[in-house]
């Protein structure tokens, strides 16, 4: 029981990332009909928003303390972060410590601008083009963005720690009444799962209970009819592209303490997230979320030492094997809609 619960927990954080990225991919495909292979790059850009914000908060001024000497007898140089000078040492240190969640303040406007620029500057010219053209141009854009990040930040991962209060682990087994010390789990991974659940709930609530969301859902079902009613559905779809970019960016921001940001992290998640979208069903938002969590948990179980001892390397291919089986038995995916990607 302890091993099963631990693997479920391990699968939740990766499944959360899959679900969030797949949700954004499905939003873009469902509204604009575009297969966006640059969506993983949006996840990467969000992660580096956290890196940039952390570096901004860590900017320091150097002063000399004549009352203290270094080992050469020179006045000791002291670095004081600007935020500590402006807000005081206590509040300043808190801001630096909480730089990852606070970087959401930077990530939201940045991702909106990146999403709008991407859609208006490139994607809109490929609405009527074949999906193969869309894949090629967006994949090329992803490579360009990846190389830009590599140029400015280097090829090595950049550690971005969680706030100190969430830095450790806790005894999850004892919390639910099992034997103490059997299920030790990091705080931040549960924070990420809760954050992902909140974002997913917010997106579904926005689409389900707001007038804007209802119009978007109607446009996804019958774009021409909605347009004939005098509604500028294209403008709303552009806004949805920006929202999808924000979802991917926020997923990247909060994932940085789990996986240190690097220039290829977008590609690492992109292919798997597309598999998630296909398994869930192209154009199905609930299917994308369901498949994200299911495949994340399945991948976690496949990574167990007991499983790898029987089938070495199965954790690297299990998601693709499941995708093959599901598409052979249910070509539209778990919750796919009729007519989507069947032309």
From TrEMBL:
Gene Ontology molecular function, alphabetical: transmembrane transporter activity
Keywords, sorted A to Z: Amino-acid transport, Cell membrane, Membrane, Transmembrane, Transmembrane helix, Transport
Claim: DNA damage is one of the keywords in the record: no
Subcellular location per the Swiss-Prot or TrEMBL entry: Cell membrane
Record's bilayer topology term: Multi-pass membrane protein
GO BP, sorted A to Z: amino acid transport
Transmembrane annotation, as ranges: 15-35, 42-62, 95-114, 192-216, 236-257, 269-298, 304-328
GO cellular component annotations of the record: plasma membrane
Major localization listed first in the record, in broad terms: membrane
CDD domains: TM_PBP1_LivH_like (cd06582)
Similarity annotation: Belongs to the binding-protein-dependent transport system permease family. LivHM subfamily.
PANTHER family: ABC TRANSPORTER ATP-BINDING PROTEIN (PTHR11795:SF442), BRANCHED-CHAIN AMINO ACID TRANSPORT SYSTEM PERMEASE PROTEIN LIVH (PTHR11795)
Name under which the protein is recorded: Branched-chain amino acid ABC-type transport system, permease component
Native organism: Hoeflea phototrophica (strain DSM 17068 / NCIMB 14078 / DFL-43)
Phylogenetic classification of the source organism: Bacteria, Pseudomonadati, Pseudomonadota, Alphaproteobacteria, Hyphomicrobiales
